[in-house]
Amino acid sequence: MTETPDTPKRSPEDWLNRIIVLVIAAMAMIFGVPLTIGSAISLVTLVMAGEWPTPWAIPALVIGLAVTAFGFVIAWRAFVPNPKAKS
Q1: CA distance readout (Å), 25 to 4, 48, 68, 70, 82
Q2: What are phi and psi of 54, to 5 degrees?
Q3: What is the C-alpha to C-alpha distance for residues 13 and 15, in angstroms, rounded to an integer?
């Protein structure tokens, strides 16, 4: 694989930083995805049963979505670097 002149060479520190960021993103996804799925199932089940949702059903869903989005964005930035960044 040939590198173009525009592609900066990656140092070992860059790869270590990338691995650390991916571990943080994985932990966020491991926490956020089950929280989102569980909260959504709980909320839908309560609404279908004609009951009022518990006070934490909607905040738990929002927290799960936020943590999942955070993990996705962090993982995306580890794989796709900012094109405007100066290196």
Answers
A1: 29, 34, 9, 8, 17
A2: -65, 160
A3: 5
Those residues whose C-beta lies under 8 Å from the C-beta of residue 65, and which sit 6 or more positions away, are 32, 36
Structure tokens at 2: 């040939």
**Statement: the pTM of the whole predicted model exceeds 0.85:** no
pLDDT tens digits, 12-21: 677 888 889 9
Tell me the backbone φ, ψ of residue 44, rounded to 5 degrees: -65, -40
Using CA atoms, how far residue 22 sits from 6, 39, 70, 76, in Å, is 25, 25, 12, 9
Show the low-confidence residues of the chain (pLDDT under 50).
none
Q: Phi and psi (nearest 5°) for 4?
A: -80, 160
Q: Work out whether the CA dihedral 29, 32, 36, 37 comes out positive or negative.
A: positive
